[in-house]
Amino acid sequence: MKGLLLKDAYQIWHYAKGVIVATVVMMGAGVVTIMNGANFFIVYAGFMMGMMPMTLLAYDQASKFSEYSAALPVTKEQLVGSKYIVGLCGLVLAELFAAAALGVASLHWTAVDHALVVSTLVQVGMTTLLNSAVLLPLNYRFGYEKAKYAFYLMVGLVAALMGFGVSANEDGLARNLLPQGVPPLALLGIAVAALALYALSWRLSVAWYGKAEQ
Q1: Higher-scoring residue by pLDDT: 153, 19
Q2: Mean pLDDT within 55-70
Q3: Among candidates 56, 49, 64, 84, which has minimal Cα distance to 205?
Q4: pLDDT tens profile 148-161
Q5: Residue among 124, 55, 43, 119 at smallest CA distance from 91
Q6: pTM for the full model?
Q7: What are phi and psi of 213, to 5 degrees?
Q8: Quick check: 130 pLDDT over 60?
Q9: Percentage, residues of the chain above pLDDT 70
Q10: How many whole angstroms from its chain centre is CA 207?
Q11: Is 213 within 8 Å of 139 (Cβ atoms)?
């Protein structure tokens, strides 16, 4: 497992660090745009971090590592688990970036109150996990080429849901992926549900590993 994680870390550093840079840039833009409560850039940056496991799978496929791994002394649980661990690392990194952006924003904008900070952090975590939870099982069952179409659909769906808030706010700003004024207990439930879905997705990916359609 350690070797697989080191391989993924090497690939991220040399081939996919642009995603991390883009995330930081979007978080920076979010510091400005959140002055009226619009957290789109911060939440969408978290969504981008959730792409990392699928990006690594694309590199594995291009380099034929998926075929070579059959000769390695690793189990399918370890091969699948490495990608889900990368997803969890992406979650932590996205939350740290978001917390930093929200901390800076709260020093300048009165609209960034405690409720918005908590809600935004939950949304970042939810959208970051959503990518892997949905796409990884599809990748292991149907292959990367078919799974990527589901990703395009998810991008459109998340953008549409966030844009839906435009008509719901008097100032015409899409402030939240979630409705305004969600109680803390409900936010906690959403966070727990997202983690539970991620765990279920992990088990499903292990069960479907090696069954991708040729």
Answers
A1: 19
A2: 80
A3: 84
A4: 777 777 767 766 66
A5: 124
A6: 0.83
A7: -70, 135
A8: yes
A9: 86
A10: 22
A11: no
Map the chain to HEC letters.
CHHHHHHHHHHHHHHHHHHHHHHHHHHHHHHHHHHHCCCHHHHHHHHHHCCHHHHHHHHHHHCCHHHHHHHCCCCHHHHHHHHHHHHHHHHHHHHHHHHHHHHHHHCCCCCCCHHHHHHHHHHHHHHHHHHHHHHHHHHHHHCHHHHHHHHHHHHHHHHHHHHCHHHHCCCCCCCCCCCCCCCHHHHHHHHHHHHHHHHHHHHHHHHHCCCCCC
Residue that has been written with the tokens 């997705």 in this structure: 201
Question: What pLDDT, on a 0 to 100 scale, did the predictor assign at position 114?
Answer: 85
- Among left, alpha and beta (phi > 0; psi -120 to 50; other), residue 113 is beta
Query: Which amino acid appears at position 102 of this protein?
Result: L
